[in-house]
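FW: tagging you since you asked about this chain on Friday. Here's the raw sequence from the shared folder, copied in full. Didn't touch anything.
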Amino acid sequence: NISVLVRSQLWLASQAFIDQIENTGSYRFLSCLKFHMYSGSLYYKSINVNITFVSFYLRPRTVWLGHPEKRDQRYPRNVINNQKYNFFTFLPGVLYNQFKYFFNLYFLLLACSQFVDELRLGALYTYWVPLVVVLFITIGREAVEEIRCSIRDKEVNSHIYSKLLPRGKSNQRVPADMIFLRTTERNGSCFLRTDQLDGETDWKLRLPVACTQRLPTADLLQIRSYVYAEEPNIDIHTFNGTFTREDGDPPVNESLSIENTLWASTVIASGKRTVGVVIYTGKELRGVMNTSNPKNKMGLFDLEVNCLTKILFGALVVVSLVMVALQHFAGRWYLQIFRFLLLFSNIVPISLRVNLDLGKMVFSWMINRDSKIPGTVVRASTIPEELGRISYLLTDKTGTLTQNEMVFRRLHLGTVAYGMDSMDEVQSHVFSAYTQVNTMPPTMAPAATKVRKTISSRVHEAVKAIALVHNVTPVYEANGVTDQAEAEQHYEDTCRVYQAASPDEVSLVQWTESVGLTLVGRDQSSMQLRTPSGQILNFTILQIFPFTYESKRMGIIVRDESTGEITFYMKGADAVMAGIVQYNDWLEEECGNMAREGLRVLVVSKKSLTEEQYQDFEARYVQAKLSVHDRSLKVATVIESLEMEMELLCLTGVEDQLQTDVRPTLEILRNAGIKVWMLTGDKMETATCTAKNAHLVTRNQDIHIFRAVTTRGEAHLELNSFRRKHDCALVISGDSLEVCLKYYEYEFMELACQSPAVVCCRCAPTQKAQIVRLLQERTGKLTCAVGESPRPHALLRPSNCTIDPTKQCEGKQASLAADFSVTQFKHLGRLLMVHGRNSYKRSAALSQFVIHRSLCISTMQAVFSSVFYFASVPLYQGFLIVGYSTIYTMFPVFSLVLDKDVKSEVAMLYPELYKDLLKGRPLSFKTFLIWVLISIYQGSIIMYGAMLLFESEFVHIVAISFTSLILTELLMVALTVQTWHWLMMVAELLSLSCYVASLVFLHDYIDVYFIATVSFLWKVTVITLVSCLPLYILKYLRRRFSPPSYSKLTS
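HL: got it, structure written out here
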C-alpha cells in the first residue's frame, strides 16, 4: 500500500477521512489516498509521497464513521480533469499529434533539409515560415480548447462544500458518489436531477438510510458505524451495499440500493439540507468511469481529402523521377531526386489542412450564431461538413420526436371506458363514493341501483389505486402571498408542485386531482389524500418497489389508517402485468386498441393482504435485502411471491405529444433522400402509431409488421415474406431483430436498407449501437444518430455524427456526448439542409482551390525546368514563394467559405437539392481531375506566354509570369463565386493592393521600372485572358446547355 498526500476540495462526512485545516478563513483539507499495487518492490522518496506505481485495481471498500483508528483508509483525489494535456505535455503532445501523420512529417523533413547545403534551394524562411504559420494556428486552436476545458474543470473543482453536504439551498450539485444519510425535509426524502449523468430529464427519488435519518445531524459523526460498498463500476442504475451501526443495541444492519445513493454530478432538486458519506471519489466516480477520453472525430470528407493528397504525393514522386530520368540519371542523380522533391513540394499544399480547419471553425461559428435555430451548440467543430451528406438518420422516440410531456387521455375498466369528453362522469362517481348523500331518484329500479353502485365503486377503486401507486411527492412553494410553511400546513392548491421521477406519474396524479382525489402530502412513511368533500385520508407506506427498466413495473404496500386494511397496489406494462393479474378476456385486446391510438398503456391492479401475510412477507423481504451476493435475484423472488392472482382494476392511457413541426421536418428529410429509422423501447403498437402520426410512414405506404420469430426457420420465412413487398415500411421488435441479426445479418440489412422507413421497437441500447455499426459497414453511407434516450451513449457513440435534441443543451451528458445539440427536433431541417449543405459544398470548393493554387505554380516550375535543360533551379525565390500562398491569394481563396449557390429559404423549400450531395459529387475523382487539368492548362499558358513575350532579361519572365499568376488566381475565385459577399470583394481588393504595394520592396526579384511600362501591362493582360477566358466560356456554355439543379431556382 502506497500513501499519497494530495489536496482536495470536498468535505467528507466522516472524521476518519479527513485532516481538517483552515486556509485564509475558508475551509479546506488534505485528503489521503491509498492505492493497491502489484509490484515486486516499492520505493519511497519521502514519508508522504510515493514516486511510482504500476497499476491499481478497483475493489470493494468499507467506509468507517466514528472510528479514528481506521484513519489509514485512502482513496483517489476528488477532482475532475477533462483536459487532453497539462502544462508540461501540451507543446510536446500537440507537436506529436501533428507530426505523427505522414504529410506533416514530410513538410518538417523538407524544411530541415534546407540546412544541408547540397539540398538548399533558397532562403530558409521559404520553407520554415509556412510550416511555422500552420503550426502556430494549430497550437493556438488547441490552446484555446484546452483553456476553455481548464476553466470548466476549475469551476467544477473549486466548489467549496460544507462538512455536512450541502448546507443551505437545494439545486446544488453533488460533488462525489455518496450514500444518503439524512435530510431535513419533512417527508424524509429528496429528488435528484440526473440529466448530466444519464441524459434523463425526469427526477429521481432518493431515500436516506433509515437509522441515520432518525438521528440529529450533529450525532452522525459520533456513532460507530460503517458502510460496505461494492467495487466501483460503470453501472449508474444499480448499487449493492450495507450500512451497519455497531453501537446500537442490538446492532443495526440495513441494506443499501440505488435509492440510497447520491451520484456525483447529479443535482439535489429538493431538500433543505442533505448529508451523505462519500464512498467513491476521483477516477472511481460513476460518471467519470462512464466518460471516454476526448477524441477528435475525422469525417469522411477528411478521409477523401487525405486520399487526394496521397495521389498528389504520388504525382510529386513521379514528376521528380521523370525529371531525373530525362537527365539520363547523370552524375549524383539521387541528390537530384531530393532536389526535385523539394522543388515540386508545392504539389502537396501545406496550407490545405489549415485552410480546411479554419473553414470548419467558421462553419461552426455560423451554426452557433444562426438566429433561426437558437440554442444550437456545435461540440465537434471538426465535422460540420458531415451534416451535408447524411444518408441514414436514426432517431429515438421519447423526448426526440415527442415532448416527453404526458397528458392523461383514457381510463378503461374493461366494460366501460372514459375519454377526455367523459371525465365529468368519473368525477361524479368519485364524489358519490366519498359522500353519504343518496342522490338516486326514487323511481330507479333496484337492478339499475346495483349496476350503478358497481360501476361507481369500480371507478372509485381505480382512481384511488392510481392516486396511491406512484413515487410522486407534492412540494409547496411560496407564491408571494402565502409562505412555504403556511402553504404546506394548509395544503394550498396554488402553491403545490408535483415532483416525480417520471412525467407519466405526474400526469396520473394530476388527473386524479382533476377528478376530485388530490395527493396533498407525502413523506417517507405516509401519504395523504384529500377527497372532494375536503376530508383527509391517511395511508401508511409499508413498502415501495420502484420501477426499473428490467421489471417494467412498480408497486406499493399501504395501510389505510381509518380501516387498518393493508393493500398491495401495482402498475406496469401490459407485457409483464398480463401474467400477474387474474385471468380476463379483455386486457390484451384493449391494450392493443389503446396503443394503436398512440397511447402509453399502464395496467393497474391490487391485492388485499392480511396482517399475517404482510408480516411473513416483510421478514423474508428484509432478509433478502441484507444479502450481499445475488441480492437482486433474492429480492425479486420474494416480491414475485406477492405478484400472483392480483385483481385487475383498470388501464390508463397517457399521450406523449409530438414535438412542434415534427411532421414537416420528417417530410423535408424524406424528400432530401434521407432514410429515417426510429429506434425505441416502446411497444410495437405505440411505436407504429407514433410513426404514422409523425408521418414517418406516409399514408400511401404499406407497413410490414415483422411477426415475432424465435428460430432460424421462422426468421427465414418472415424475411422471404418481406422480400416480396416493395416500398413498404418495416416494423420489427427487438427480440425478432436479435434473431435475424444472429442468423441472417446480411440479408436483413439488405432488405431493411431498401425500405423507406424502419421502426425498431422494444429495442435495447446495445441493439441500437449494433444497428448503427451494421449500417455503416453494409452501406458505407454516413449515419446520424438523434437521441435523448435514457442511455444515450449507446446510440450516439458509433455514429458518424450525433445530434441531441433537448431544451437544455448545457450540462447534460447526452448533449456533451453528442457532436451537435439543438433545442428542438424541427431545427434538424435547417441544420442539415442549409448548414450541412453549405459546409460540405464550401469545404469541397475550398480544398479544390487550394490544390489548384499549388498545382498552378508547380506546373510553371515544371515547364521552367524543362525548358532550361531539366535544371533543379527554383523559378521563384524568397518572399515571392512565401507571399504567393499567404497574403497574395490566401484571403480570396478562403473567402469561398462565404459562398452559397442558393439562399437558405430556397434550400429549405426544395430539400431535393440535398439529394445531389449524397453522391459525393462536389469532391470526387472526376472534379479533382478537372481541377488538375485546369491547373496544368493555366500554369502552362502563363509560363510559356511569359517566356514567349519576355524581352531581354530573365527578371522580366519572373515579373510577367508571377503577376499573371496572381491575377489568374484572383479572377478564378471571382469566376467561381456564385453569390457575392462584401467580404469577398474586400478580400480581392486587399490581396491585389498587397501585391501592388509590395512591388516596391521586391526589387531583388522584379524589375520595378519594367512593371511600370505599357509593354508589361499588355503582356500580362493577354496572358491572363488566355488562361481564364476559355474557362469562363466553357462555364457559360455548361450552364447554358447543362445547367445544375439549383440554377432554375436562383433565376
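FW: The CA atoms of residues 1 and 889 lie 63 Å apart.
HL: agreed, and The longest helix spans residues 827-867.
FW: great, closing this out.
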